[in-house]
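A reminder from the course coordinator: this example appears on the midterm review sheet, so study it carefully.

Given structure:
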């Protein structure tokens, strides 16, 4: 059984392709999208998803989001008494997704295809594979997110001999890829991306602009009101 996983900056999801159509698996709360957030509970247990996202505000020192941006680096994150590397945090999200898939399928999942941003280099791709291994699965293939989007829309079956530009604007990244389709084969000619140009960055800019207009000094705001995934919001992270 091979599943497809979109390991996103803000949300992740998992599914399979069966009967000529994709099938997505809901999580424990019935949602298809699982927030890519990890938190350590008061009892030391690990929380992933919506519950962890809620704790970003109430327990900022024990919760973290947007760690996909740190993949391929030696950056560590202190959550409570424990320290995590980016691939370890991603592995926790993957385990949660796999548990949802296995609950729906009634069988063990051992292999996966994971989509990654087009800008990901060797170090980031190796870290993603490492996250899969830590989660207990074999990553059969990594596919660029813009290419995955093109395949999902069936562009390879529509207009042969054409060139497309695919724009992928996500929660944390903005990717652009130029694809050519010839004889049903999709070839990537060029890819580029910015991992600090997404929904999280737009939200940060809007909040800063609002505080400026209202003459609110953000330095006086309680840290719990400042999203933990934004650079400079915490001193608990180290590299």
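Designed residues:
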């Amino acid at each position: 059984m091979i599943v497809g996983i979109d390991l996103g900056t803000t949300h992740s999801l998992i599914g399979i392709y069966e009967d000529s159509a994709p099938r997505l698996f809901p999580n424990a709360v019935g949602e298809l999208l699982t927030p890519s957030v990890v938190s350590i509970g008061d009892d030391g247990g690990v929380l992933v998803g919506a519950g962890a996202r809620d704790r970003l505000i109430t327990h900022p020192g024990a919760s973290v989001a947007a760690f996909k941006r740190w993949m391929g680096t030696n950056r560590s994150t202190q959550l409570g008494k424990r320290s995590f590397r980016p691939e370890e945090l991603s592995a926790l999200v993957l385990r949660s997704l796999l548990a949802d898939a296995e609950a729906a399928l009634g069988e063990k999942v051992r292999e996966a295809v994971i989509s990654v941003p087009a800008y990901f280099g060797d170090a980031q791709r190796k870290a993603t594979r490492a996250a899969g291994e830590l989660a207990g699965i074999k990553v059969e293939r990594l596919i660029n997110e813009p290419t995955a989007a093109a395949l999902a829309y069936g562009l390879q079956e529509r207009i042969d001999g054409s060139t497309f530009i695919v724009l992928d604007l996500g929660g944390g990244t903005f990717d652009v890829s130029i694809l050519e389709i010839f004889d049903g084969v999709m070839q990537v000619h060029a890819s580029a991306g910015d991992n600090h140009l997404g929904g999280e960055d737009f939200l940060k800019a809007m909040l800063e602009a609002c505080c400026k207009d209202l003459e609110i000094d953000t330095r006086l705001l309680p840290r719990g009101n400042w999203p933990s995934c934004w650079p400079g919001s915490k001193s608990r992270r180290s590299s």
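The longest helix spans residues 86-105. The chain has a mean pLDDT of 87.
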